[in-house]
Amino acid sequence: MSVANDSHFDFIVVGGGTAGNCIAGRLAENPNVKVLVIEAGVANSHEIEDITTPSKAFGLRGSQYDWAYKTTMIKRDDYERVEKPNTRGKALGGSSTANYFTWIPGSAATFDDWEPYGGRDWTWQGCVEYLRKCATYHDDEGLYPRELQQIGHGGPVQISHAELVPELHTFRDALAQAWVSKGEPLTEDIYSGHMHGLTHCVDSIYKGERQGSYVYLFNRPNVTVLSGAHSKRLLIDPATRVCSGVEVLLPATHSTLRLHATREVILSQGVFETPKLLMLSGVGPRSELSKHHIDLIVDSPHVGQHLLDHPIVPFVLRLKDGLTLDDHLLRSGPAHDAAVSAYRRNRTGPVSSGLLELVGFPRIDARLHQSPAYRKAKAANGGRDPFGPAGQPHFELDFVGMFSSAFQWHYPVPREGSYMTVIVDLLRPVSEGGEVTLNSTDPLVQPNINLNFFGNDLDIVAMREGVRWTYDMLMNGDGFKDLVLAEYPWEMPLHSDEAMDRAVLERSQTGFHPCGTARLSKSIQQGVVDARLRVHGIRNLRVADASVIPVIPDCRIQNSVYMIGEKGADLIKADHRDLYESDLLTMFFRAIQIGLPLGYLNQIEKRLADTEQALFEALTIMRELNASHDRPMIRATRTSPDLRSKSARMQEWSRSPLRDWAERERWWEAQRDQFRVTRTMIGSSPRIEAPPPPTRSERPRMVAAPNLPSRRTSGTAESESSQQQRSDRATEVAQRNPSLYF
């Protein structure tokens, strides 16, 4: 879509990736809000079969839909290796169009490690609702526990368990048998904050097609997507440090556009491009900007630093013929023709598969304790395991039922036989993070990227022992050991520590989970953005993508990046309530319906122009009443002595049970199925089809804020009948006098 120079939008999202599209779609829920998404890749991702067909995912590496970054994997005094390409999606949807689908939230304990950077709002409890908000989980055949419905309900991204293709039946059963024979559990629930065992994968695939973040933009006419556009610099006033837009290059027409945001700019270009654009715009380490003669606006020393990723060691085993999908997907012939026909007919079969059906999360404490280096590191860490201090898994093990060139690009593709690809993924490396620095001031030139894998020798020890544990399970485990014919294309030197250490350095690759280069922080001395994702030192600019992650999740990061987008959207909405206040209003009037103690609302005289003040007062009343009574009741007016000043109202608000946007939204979601509400955005207030007054048993009890003194309107609590009358009166007033409130 073409955009005129000097066009204005309410919000500009720079980068149409996993989080960027999520934010754009959520901000566009108000149809009167104009949102621009700037994307360097193509805009029609959902129409491209190479992207939407699951089994073609491995073939996207190095394609026109891949940024194909040149990356320094390892930079040690004794060993250095540079690789290309490091895949990142170059299409609308970003890496959600090029990833390998797996949907895993991670361990609660690892999210809790975010608290020193982002505060309590970024712990597991502050993030789990957003990990689930983005998706809708489907189990159309009813194969899995109903409790798994919690992992996604009502979100745009349709997710489901990997299709269990019949061709891999023997492979799956033997793998599960071998896993159990080594004393490891089987599980279907790795979604409640604890991960341990072998599990069936949930994927961002539904009915045989990829689900990318572009789904957030469907049916959003107020979202403009400018594709084929490369960001040049952010428009930041050096004097005021206000970001007002972005300047972009259109290589196809050799032109430049200046585009303006009347509200905010949200930077979501991903872990490599986000820090690059910040530095090109004058925000970054002073020394780095000085090196490239860029005028400094904000000296932000952590921009581009703390680059995190999961190092992996892949290996390949040859199995007995006919056990995997090599003939169906890699070679021409009858099996391939049948697989293609099945997919074209009804989107089923091997072509519809994400290729990873089973994934394992083990701990290998016994093996690690055999290493003197590990024992020393654990002692230095206060006796806590450096790789999983709260019981998190040490590794993610992926078992792909075919040869995968995406992880073995140095290996020749076998022309015959059945193979499996195994990926040993170290989930919590202890090496210091890498960095992203400028290679040039030309915005079309990729930055320098150093992943700094194995900067700490302890990571080599862990990876070495993880590979050995996995080999032992497959080569000696019950059931599976009878299927293995040979290693391919060469053997792993399992019996020599020195040779294994060298093999780890030479054969390791990226897990394609980079993050951390603009991390959450409590100050500019700790990171790049604050807990509300605002860039330190710059107004009207936020970052929302994988670069804000301060501690790498112990799993694939797709779900986490969607979470950042969802949470970021709510943070932005909360700071622009004049655009999104209908959510507040709907919640406000819904509270009337269910009999919460909001007082005689006809005494709250101000209406839509002062909705927030009314909400402050109403929720203050709620807090007071619930601190001293067993059930909802009515009390007080806005002229209560301790509510007369704004500061007093704000103090009371901060103590209320629903004191922030996220808590109000959680309360909203918990109650929404009980009522029929017609929601509208700005321009008209919500209309509610009021149900009958709820009975006492139906009325929820709001818990008082902790450590607050009880308050009563008199020395004794009112009688139950009096409380009932007051609650019913509140509902009656709202229903009979809609003109006062709607």
From TrEMBL:
GO terms for molecular function: flavin adenine dinucleotide binding; oxidoreductase activity, acting on CH-OH group of donors. Signal peptide: none annotated. Residues 9-311 form the Glucose-methanol-choline oxidoreductase N-terminal domain. InterPro entries: FAD/NAD-bd_sf, GMC_OxRdtase, GMC_OxRdtase_N, GMC_OxRtase_C. Residues 679-742 are annotated as: Disordered. Belongs to the GMC oxidoreductase family. This is FAD/NAD(P)-binding domain-containing protein.
